[in-house]
Write a structure and sequence with these properties.
It is built from 6 helices and 14 strands. The protein is an alpha+beta fold. About 20% of the residues have low confidence.
Length: 284
Amino acid sequence: MANYGYGGGYGQTTSYGGQSAANDGGGFMAGSQSGSQESPGNAKQSGKETLRPVTIKQIIDATQAHPDGNFKVDDSEISQITFVGQINSINPQATNITYKLDDGTGLIEVKQWIDNEAEDGLQKPQSKEGDYVRVWGRLKAFNNKRHVGSHIIRPVADFNEVSYHLLEATAAHLYFTRGPPNADGTVVKGEANNGGMFVDGGAGANGGAQYQGKRLSSKSSAAARKVYEHLQSMPQNNEGLHVHMIAGKLQMPINDVFKAGDELLGEGLIYTTVDDETWAVLEY
């Protein structure tokens, strides 16, 4: 069973997981189901195999202690990774097909090595520019340029898989940066992490005030800042706080709280939970 390294994995067969792809091949070319399609002579193996869901920004920001060292994301070593992206370009070559993928957080090249023994019809890409695909593979670096050597590239049939993957990558990121949740679902607060999964680390484009690792836009209203700071100060769980509780605690008019909530929702800093009037902080 593939292991994310944080207690998760593809052990359960789901419509978006890697179990079915691992069983039937799932790739663009014959031979991908048999293991790595990395270039010959590049068969470096790690002692512990893990499978980590990531964003492309995390791939770009991954660190190495030295050029031959293992890559790390969130200060944790990775061996295999999986991500979802849209094909920006396709470049067929004699030994491989190079895809440039974009997931909204960055661009990365993915190389699918060609099996010379496969039939000619199986050597051609099965997806085109603009299509979404899921990739399983390993992060590589050659001449100081990073790419992903793919084991499998599978077309995304259901766009919900894109959202599912981002949620799964977020869960893994939070586990490594803040620790596992408590039994009651509250988040264990870890030290602030300078890295992030997304382009602006969850902040607005203008940056601004920061509360426990979250940033507000410099254009945020005083009411929005007050509501947001209150939400951040409360134990974080899946239920959140109802707007009437917020108004009572802060002694603010209910309409002002609603306006502040609309502002925070629009900036992607909070989300609705059990109903439209119950909010929780969106953790990155």
